[in-house]
Amino acid sequence: MTKPDRAAAVFDDLAAECDQLDAILAALEPDVWERLSAASGWTIADVVLHLAQTDEAVVASVAGDMSSPTGASVDTVMDDLVAGERGAPGDKVLERWRTSYKAALGALRGCPPGERLQWVASTLSAPALATTRIAEHWAHALDITEPLGLGYPDTDRLRHVAWLGHRTLPYAFAVAGEQGGPVRCELTGPSGEVWRFGDADAPSVITGTAGEFCRVGAQRLAAKDSSLTTEGPYGAAALRVLRNYAA
């Protein structure tokens, strides 16, 4: 697959992830929006508002209007943004998010190849930023659906999330203040295909299902509670520091 084809696949998968969540949100009764989500301190409406705000930030980034956060942590900034705009009814929050994710997709698809976009404290290509948006929409979809007892089946779109978790392991080690080293991952996707990331001769390895790997990286599952296995000098540490996000 060529680079343009890979980029298009990432954008298409982001669209599919948003559409899957959209279908679930569209069926919610008005009172459900004020129920607590699995995201600490946030209602379901708050989670969707956060997704809308961050999709709007994607559009701003593409337009060159985003600056790096300073001082407060990313989590604090996100909490403050939600607190400052919460209160709209669910149907209005859903409408805002629909508008924002479609605008974000259009902006990312229109980026020239090789262009770098400001995001949090670093710069990313448009496909890489789309990958982070898949990871965030997927994780927050779990925050919404699990407390409601709704199904949100894993799909092969998790390959993007797993790639992101592996790709950012050096960053995760650095944030945790731990020494890391080469780690490969051998993960079984929802369709049964084995996904391999990293050098085949890396001395450390994480093995198991992609769904659990991605949930650990999203802090939706504790590594000790997963069935993932590790080998080598850095495998266990890599699983402990794994993250699919920047904060």
From TrEMBL:
Isomerase keyword on record: yes
GO MF annotation terms: isomerase activity
InterPro entries: DinB/YfiT-like, Maleyloyr_isom, MDMPI_metal-binding
Gene3D superfamilies per UniProt: dinb family like domain
Mycothiol-dependent maleylpyruvate isomerase metal-binding domain residues: 14-144
Alphabetically ordered keywords of this record: Isomerase
Superkingdom to which the source organism belongs: Bacteria
The name this protein goes by in its record: Maleylpyruvate isomerase family mycothiol-dependent enzyme
Protein's organism: Sphaerisporangium corydalis
